[in-house]
Structure formats: C-alpha cells, structure tokens
Amino acid sequence: MAERAVVTAILLMIVLSICLYITESFIPIGKNMDFRDVCRSYLMKMEYCSGLGPEDLNALEERLEDLGFSGITVYAPESAKAGSEMILDVAAVYSHMSPVYIFRRIAREYEMRYSRTAIARRIMN
User: Fold this and answer.
1) d(CA 1, CA 48)
2) Terminal-residue alpha carbon distance, the chain
3) DSSP assignment string, the chain
4) Which tens digit of pLDDT belongs to each residue from 22-33?
5) Percent of the chain at pLDDT exceeding 90
6) Measuring CA to CA, which residue among 77, 117, 72, 76 is closest to residue 95?
7) For residues 51 and 85, what is the distance between their CA atoms, to the nearest angstrom?
8) Is the pLDDT of residue 113 over 90?
9) What is the β-pairing status of strands 69-75 and 105-119?
10) Which domains does the chain have, with CATH numbers?
11) What residues contact 123, with CB distance under 8 A and at least 6 apart?
C-alpha cells in the first residue's frame, strides 16, 4: 500500500512539472500578442493623425517598458502628406527565465519586431 502512495506522488509531481513547463512556454507568446496590440493601436493613431509626434513615440516606449520590454527602438514619421505611405517599425526585446529541464531555468531573450505600412489620411469633420 505504501508503494502505491509513493508511485502516485511521483506521477503527480511529473504531471505537475509537465503542466508548469507547458504553461511557462506560452508566456512569450502572450507577451508577443500584447506587443502587437500596443503597436497596432499606435499604427491606427499614426494613420489617423498622419504621423506620430515625439510625445506619442515616448508614450509608446513607456507603455512597452511597462509591459516588461527593453531595448526598444521605434521609427515612425512625424508627419506625412495625405495619401503617402508611412512605416511604423518597432523592435523590442523580452527577457524571460525559461524552463529547460524539470528544475533548471535559463534566461532567454526574445526579439519582437512590428513593421507595418499605413497610408496617411486627413479626416475632416
């Protein structure tokens, strides 16, 4: 009977370790989705305003830093003529301690890049 409890405890630990590993493997994917959501909102703002000013670029960098990103580089035109193409190019690095084996972790850096083109337009009310 005692052997059965020991085997059950070991199997439970293995299953919990696998679940933890799988869960932590999805963290960078979620961060990439957050990164793209933030960049997409600023792309729409850039398209609507025909460019991003310095305060908008600083706000974008601060928002990404709040999400845990570092090494952020942003390129966006400050202004553009209506009908011209504008490029929003954002790159950032996300550092995460990833599990390698059951009890071992290593630091990994994930480079994320968002590069999209939009057409400048002036909306008159």
Assistant:
1) 71
2) 79
3) -HHHHHHHHHHHHHHHHHHHHHHHHTHHHHHHHHHHHHHHHHHHHHHHHTS--HHHHHHHHHHHHHTTEEEEEEE--S---TT-EEEEEEEEEEEEEEESSSS-EEEEEEEEEEEEEEE------
4) 888 888 999 999
5) 46
6) 72
7) 10
8) yes
9) unpaired
10) 27-119 (3.30.1300)
11) 48
CA dihedral 120, 60, 74, 66 (to 10 degrees): -160
CA 51-119-45 angle, to 5 degrees, is: 40
> What is the rounded distance in angstroms from the CA atom of residue 101 to the CA atom of residue 83?
53
CA atoms within 13 A on the CB side of 93: 6
Side chain identity, residue 4: R
Residue with tokens 């990439």: 32
Strand-by-strand arrangement of the 105-119 sheet: 69-75, 85-99, 105-119
Structure tokens at 5: 């409890």
User: Residue 124 — left, alpha, or beta (φ > 0 → left; ψ -120 to 50 → alpha)?
Assistant: beta
Q: Average pLDDT, stretch 86-110?
A: 86
